[in-house]
Design brief:
The protein is 29% helix and 25% strand. It has 464 residues and is α/β, with parallel strands linked by helices. It has three domains: 2-143 and 262-324, 3-Layer(bba) Sandwich (FAD/NAD(P)-binding domain); 147-259, FAD/NAD(P)-binding domain; 337-448, FAD/NAD-linked reductase, C-terminal dimerisation domain (Enolase-like, domain 1, 2-Layer Sandwich), CATH 3.30.390.30.
Length: 464
């Protein structure tokens, strides 16, 4: 088959579908090319099933507070891992079902198969040739696996396999304590599995602030074994996997590999476009237009290896889709916001600690949640939040935290930074008592002591 279209979208995940939402506003002359199962990475194997697992694990973990709260017999509670995994799949299937239906309704505008570039406007999909005025690449990413694991790959679980398991063994190794490894490692440990996590770096969960990282490492060590600062090697010993890192070694039943993800670009034959690719195989693109150099081709989503987050994939899809059917426009990207759904939540907003730690024009406010009243009533009073502000005017720049319900605090701060608010602007907003948001109030008060500008009148109220 030969087919000519205005827009071809490669990939039916989050970025591809959001790109389509913009394309459809201007034309019905499009085709979606997809290889593999329908349903976004987020819904199938990423953020949604993992959050279901985390939520169940937190239910079970909360039994440790029962006795001191007057609830007896918590020691008799048991968890069924097969039933937990089945419940996760129920949630997963509901969410992926919505994604699948949203693609299938386009009928013959959907083509199954792997796309390869012939040139800047033509794609080969099996025996089919697609000629498109504009092409959007939204092929996502895949877990990184070490080739040396090939001989015992049945003992290695990535998020692609973890949620498909009927049961899980008594012991698991977790390689990598980035976002995925930390979330899953803690959840699995809370479900009663003996977890040993290995991280080649000293920092976990994407943290860069040493004080917050030290707190979070110690919090994790209370729940499972954590080995930091050494690369892990794996070898098969009988029906077990031996993990070795420096002088440490342990035998585990299986290993959850979370050492990163790679963009799904290799099979597209980008070399046929005459592009210069970097060492990762990535072409040069503009993240404000999503356009690859001057070609009629756009990237969107995890395939960019830039901000591999669902909300960023959605925005990149919107930008790529808009520019595929309009003259190319540059779009302002939103304030960076990332959340790790560990307990307590880790979150990052705006500028990173590494970029401001030696900047004398920036003040750092902090608040320790051990002193937060609502968190104490919830048996969650632990954690640290830090806020970075300009000394000269108190303008909010960024934040890093590991605090209870940090997902909510991070959103408040992201919105404030997006609107270019100052410390004093924030303090004039309402804060209800007793809420966790009062921790943000105390954080802002700490910042007022460290910035140059002082406010006349009542600190928490504006003058008419």
């Amino acid at each position: 088959m030969k087919k000519n279209v205005k827009v071809a979208i490669i990939g039916a995940g989050t970025a591809g579908l959001y790109a389509l939402s913009q394309v459809k506003k201007q034309t019905d002359d499009f085709i979606i090319i997809n290889s593999g199962p329908y349903g976004t990475t987020c819904a199938r194997v990423g953020c949604m099933p993992s959050k279901s697992l985390i939520h169940i694990a937190e239910y079970y973990h909360s039994r440790k507070h029962f006795e001191k709260s007057g609830i007896a017999n918590s020691e008799s509670l048991k968890v069924s891992i097969p039933q937990v995994l089945q419940r996760v799949r129920v949630h997963r299937d509901i969410l992926t079902g919505h994604n699948v239906k949203s693609v299938e309704r386009y009928g013959d505008k959907v083509l199954d198969g792997k796309a390869e570039f012939i040139d800047r406007n033509r794609l080969c999909v099996g025996d089919d040739i697609i000629t498109a005025e504009k092409i959007i690449i939204a092929t996502g990413s895949s877990p990184i696996l070490d080739p040396s694991w090939e001989s015992f790959k049945e003992y290695i679980l990535t998020t692609d396999e973890l949620f498909e398991q009927e049961d899980l063994p008594e012991t698991l190794g977790v390689l990598g304590l980035g976002v995925i490894g930390l979330e899953l490692g803690q959840a699995l440990a809370r479900l009663g599995i003996k977890v040993t996590a290995v991280q080649s770096k000293e920092f976990i969960g994407g943290l860069s602030d040493p004080e917050i990282n030290d707190f979070m490492v110690n919090a994790c060590k209370e729940e499972f074994d954590v080995w930091l600062g050494g690369r892990a090697t794996l070898s098969k010993v009988g029906n077990k996997i031996k993990i070795t890192s420096g002088e440490k070694e342990i035998l585990v039943d299986k290993v959850v590999a979370s050492v990163g993800r790679k963009p799904n670009l290799a099979s597209l034959k980008l070399e046929n476009l005459g592009l210069k690719l970097d060492k990762r195989g990535m072409p040069n693109f503009d993240r404000n237009t999503m356009q690859i150099e001057e070609l009629p081709i756009f990237l969107a989503g995890d395939v960019t290896a830039d901000r591999p987050l669902q909300h960023e994939a959605a925005d990149e899809g919107r930008i790529a889709g808009y520019n595929a059917v309009h003259p190319t426009e540059k779009f302002k990207r939103k304030v960076p916001l990332a959340i790790v759904f560990s307990d307590p939540n880790i979150a990052f907003v705006g500028v990173d600690y590494r970029d401001i730690k030696d900047d004398e024009t920036v003040a750092i406010g902090s608040f320790d949640f051990t002193k937060q009243s609502r968190a104490m009533l919830m048996n969650k009073n632990r954690g640290i939040v830090k806020l970075y502000v300009q000394k000269s005017d108190g303008k909010l720049l960024g934040a890093q935290m590991a605090v209870p319900h940090g997902e909510n605090l991070a959103h408040h701060l992201a919105w404030a930074i997006e609107k270019e608010l100052t410390v004093h602007d924030m303090l004039e907003l309402p804060f209800y008592h007793p809420t966790l948001e009062e921790g943000l109030f105390m954080l802002l008060l700490d910042c007022t002591k460290k910035i140059d500008v002082k406010k006349e009148g009542v600190l928490e109220l504006s003058l008419k």
